[in-house]
Specification:
By secondary structure, this protein is an alpha+beta fold. 36% of the residues lie in helices and 20% in strands. The chain has 22 helices and 28 strands. Helix 17 runs parallel beside helix 20. The protein is elongated and about 105 Å long. It starts with 9 loop residues before the first helix and ends in an 8-residue tail after the last helix. This is PLD phosphodiesterase domain-containing protein. It comes from Micromonospora purpureochromogenes.
Length: 663
């Protein structure tokens, strides 16, 4: 921006704040939500990894990186503002719709729990912004954001306010019972000692403000309660991309009457050179003694270049800036200059109010407009929200195969037709309001197949038509994006010690797969039986160690991915390949199945609660392991009669207490 105004790329600023630390949980809040863009371009900011430039390979790498976070990355969004974009969702992210009783679910936040692996210290990184989780929000618009960090067992002014906001978030997401990421974040916030003082050494402590909860004050009342004595008679500057479609602005008038600014200036929302407000409102601001303004061209130019005729970026930032000769106080967040944003009974909004001492009076960021531009029909951020919306929620559990739908509208639902890209999938009969209802087994199977390609459905209820984003759980059992690793590849992958090694391997493997007509380079087979068997034993020992470590460290979902999942390196995926003659020599396949049985018994005895927690996964693994009988018969038929006697002696010793494979 202009001189004195901080500038940064949002993704880079977030990555810098995380600073390579391990992410333990993450909660995002947004109004407009593009799930495909979020997974491809925003989610990578959580991980200190070199990701491949190809989007599909990058997703495979992210699928691996997300395993330790299973169920602990969640996006809370307004279901009336889904953006289908150019992709779909396929990663382990909880997608939770939130529809408040009044207004819109409009906050833009990220709450990211991180841990320094060298000191084991945990902190909560809090992003409060104006940017939706969309390409426009993170790549194209002029946006604003506030970043801060709350240390575990530390002191913070915002921690109690953030806790209240997250508790209210859970209440609003009433149709979903499990919120693992919120639980983890609350656990850290409960250790934080609140700072009672509003300011220290001339600096206003950050205050987290939000609307849309029972008993909340209006935005102006919150500003007055926190910093009223410093805000009065200061200069005021307001950046808001949306204004009320009215001849006068009630929220602006309330601000002016309450704080009596010495001088004030308001951003004129524009698109293509046309003002996005009524001419009467433009005149009203001037008559009240205010000014309209624009951000400098250098800020608006795409790519930071002011080429003649270059298209300007859209201003989507929401900033309320009060400043005097010795102080600057700024509210940054999601609050537009509209009645629904300012009212205590309107939208759910959030922002951070903070202040600093200055040596001289700051200047306005906005350049004053002297001549009024042409006017177009004003638009609001909620335009089109209720057009093309059906209040249907859908969820699918990959572990159980259970699919359910819920009607969140007024009264019971009419019959609902469900489509995918114009193809009729199934019909849902009348639904009782806010009650999860299971789909038939046939309809659940249809949904399962469609979810392999897209997480979006189209629902038609009467004359209403809208997009539904399916909420997916049990992601360990979701078929992987990359399913064609050979048994030798899987064993080698299990043997890799670090995340960096596995990440590089996935990139290399994916690169080979995406080449025209290319496969993996041919590998020279091991020269000796010892080499072959040592590789098998080492791979299974590494897998066993990884599962035990995950269970010891209470990373249960990560252990589930490995023991019962449907991913490229999950145990059942390897064992199921043993039924095919293309998987290699029967002796190698038989030995791999014995190792898998041995590992299964080890984990069953060591962690019976974990074993019992996933009956579907156990059933799949046991069914796959039954191939041992077939492989045994093949070995006996291809060898002399003594082979059966040898196997009768060998198998009990291999699978018994003196097991060969140890982890």
């Amino acid at each position: 921006m202009s001189e004195g105004v901080p500038r940064a790329v949002l993704t880079e600023a977030l990555r810098e704040k995380i600073n390579g630390r391990e992410v333990l949980a993450a909660v995002f809040c947004t109004f407009r939500f593009d799930p495909g863009f979020f997974e491809r371009e925003i989610l990578p900011a959580l991980f200190d990894l070199q990701l491949h430039q190809d989007p599909q390979i990058r997703r495979v790498q992210l699928e691996e990186a997300l395993r330790p976070l299973a169920g602990r990355v969640a996006v809370y969004y307004d279901p009336r503002a889904i953006v289908t974009g150019d992709g779909t969702a396929c990663l382990d992210v909880r997608r939770i719709p939130v529809r408040p009783r009044t207004g819109l679910f409009h906050p833009k936040n990220a709450f990211i729990l991180v841990r320094d692996t060298s000191t084991q210290e945990r902190s909560l990184v809090v992003l409060t912004a104006s940017a939706n989780l969309t390409q426009a929000g993170w790549w194209e618009n002029v946006e604003c954001a506030h970043l801060e960090e709350i240390a575990e067992s530390g002191r913070s002014r915002t921690a109690p306010e953030v806790q209240r906001f997250l508790r209210h978030l859970r209440t609003m997401a009433k149709n979903f019972a499990t919120h693992a990421a919120l639980d983890d974040i609350h656990g850290v916030l409960r250790t934080v000692q609140p700072i009672v003082q509003r300011s220290a050494n001339g600096r206003l402590h950050p205050h987290f403000l939000f609307n849309g909860r029972p008993g909340a004050q209006s935005l102006v009342d919150q500003l007055d309660a926190v910093a009223g004595q410093w805000l009065r008679h200061a200069d005021l500057e307001v950046l808001s991309p949306y204004l009320d479609k009215a001849d006068e602005s009630v929220p602006l008038e309330t601000l002016i009457d309450r704080f009596q600014p010495r001088k004030w200036r308001v951003l004129l929302p524009e698109e293509g050179g046309w003002a996005q407000c009524r001419p009467e409102l433009y005149d009203w601001v001037c008559q009240r003694g205010g000014e309209w303004g624009r951000l400098p061209k250098a800020v608006l130019a795409r790519g930071g270049k002011q080429a003649a005729g270059a298209a300007h970026r859209t201003v989507h930032a929401k900033v309320y800036r009060f400043f005097t000769k010795d102080r600057e106080i700024t509210l940054v967040g999601s609050f537009n200059l509209t009645n629904p944003a300012h009212s205590h009974r309107g939208n759910v909004e959030s922002g951070v109010l903070s202040g600093v001492a200055v040596e001289r009076r700051p200047r306005f960021w906005l350049e004053a407009i002297e001549e009024p531009p042409p006017f177009a029909q004003p638009v609001g951020e909620d335009d089109g929200v209720d057009q093309g919306y059906v209040p249907l929620l859908a969820r699918y559990d990959w572990a159980s195969g259970r699919a359910e739908v819920l009607w969140d509208g007024a009264g019971d639902s009419p019959p609902i037709q469900v489509y995918d890209r114009g193809v009729h999938l199934f019909e849902v009969g009348h639904l009782e309001r806010v009650v999860w209802t299971a789909l038939t087994a046939d309809d659940a199977a249809i949904l399962r197949e469609r979810l392999r390609e897209t997480s979006f459905l189209t629902a038609v209820a009467g004359d209403q038509r809208g997009i539904v984003l399916v909420h997916e759980t049990g992601m360990a059992h979701r078929p992987s994006i990359l399913l064609d690793l050979r048994p030798a590849d899987i064993l080698r992958y299990w043997s890799m010690l670090t995340a960096e090694q596995r990440n590089a391997y996935l990139a290399e493997h994916g690169e080979a797969l995406r080449g025209p007509g290319e496969g993996l380079p041919a590998e020279r087979p091991p020269d000796t039986i010892f080499d072959r068997f040592a590789g098998i034993f080492h791979g299974f020992a590494s897998l066993g160690r990884a599962v035990r470590d995950a269970l010891d460290e209470e990373r249960v979902e990560e252990a589930r991915f490995r023991m019962f999942g449907a991913k490229y390196d999950s145990l059942p995926v390897l064992v199921e390949q043993m039924a095919s003659e293309t998987a290699g020599d029967p002796l190698d396949r038989y030995l791999m199945v014995l190792c898998a049985r041995q590992l299964a018994e080890l984990i069953r005895r060591r962690s019976p609660a974990f074993w019992a927690s996933d009956p579907a996964g156990v059933s799949r693994l046991e069914e796959a392991l039954s191939v041992r009988a077939v492989l045994r018969e093949q070995l006996i038929s291809r060898n002399d009669a003594e082979m059966a006697e040898f196997l009768d002696w060998y198998e009990p010793r291999f699978l018994g207490e003196t097991a060969v494979v140890t982890a």
